[in-house]
């Protein structure tokens, strides 16, 4: 004989609002092959960084002309999954595309608020839903590394600044959601504002990096630094202008 619980339904579960940080992929092309090459190039700099991150696909920037190429949504979903991203929802889709997306298991996220577009790889950027009123959490202190970082080593300071008290050697990589402070030579890669913080900065006692990046905007050693900052104390910040975002590298005054 089946046993039926007499416990009230309200005792079985609670439904509450949630603050879920997700990424947004702001599409500016329907060319899946080009998108795949761009993702491969960007994510190669930080393997595993976006591992299993949920993603909103934002198609609001795609042309709505009936003659425009149609987005191959199944191929796009396969591409994102190949890069260990988890497609969760779609934003800005017209009726036909929205119906196709929902048939593939995507949620309609047309009301999601996108923080800002990031030029690199046509924008992986942070999106958050409005949080419910709550007591503010205590900010995390900086992650401090007091040993040299060798080639192949990677350090990520999630939700905080990163302080390195030694050299970052070629082939090493330091990443922070906040700013990166290096009290030694920066000869590897430094990524600040990894999840869209445009106010993050990179500081180094000796600026000679393979790559620097803030909020997805990057500069490599192929673009040589000027003599007034190369090998000297310097900082990197993100500068916005009419032509878009770019990195500004300036000397630190004594």
TrEMBL record:
Source organism superkingdom:
Bacteria
Keyword annotations for this protein?
Answer: Cell cycle, Cell division, Septation
Q: Name one GO biological process term.
A: cell morphogenesis
Q: Which parts of the sequence belong to the Septum formation inhibitor MinC C-terminal domain?
A: 144-240
Query: Boundaries of each Septum formation inhibitor MinC N-terminal domain copy?
Result: 14-87
The parts of the chain that form a coiled coil are none
The entry assigns this protein to a family as follows:
Belongs to the MinC family.
Q: How does it assemble?
A: Interacts with MinD and FtsZ.
Q: What does this protein do?
A: Cell division inhibitor that blocks the formation of polar Z ring septums. Rapidly oscillates between the poles of the cell to destabilize FtsZ filaments that have formed before they mature into polar Z rings. Prevents FtsZ polymerization.
This chain belongs to the protein called Probable septum site-determining protein MinC
Q: Which organism is it from?
A: Limnohabitans planktonicus II-D5
What's the gene? minC
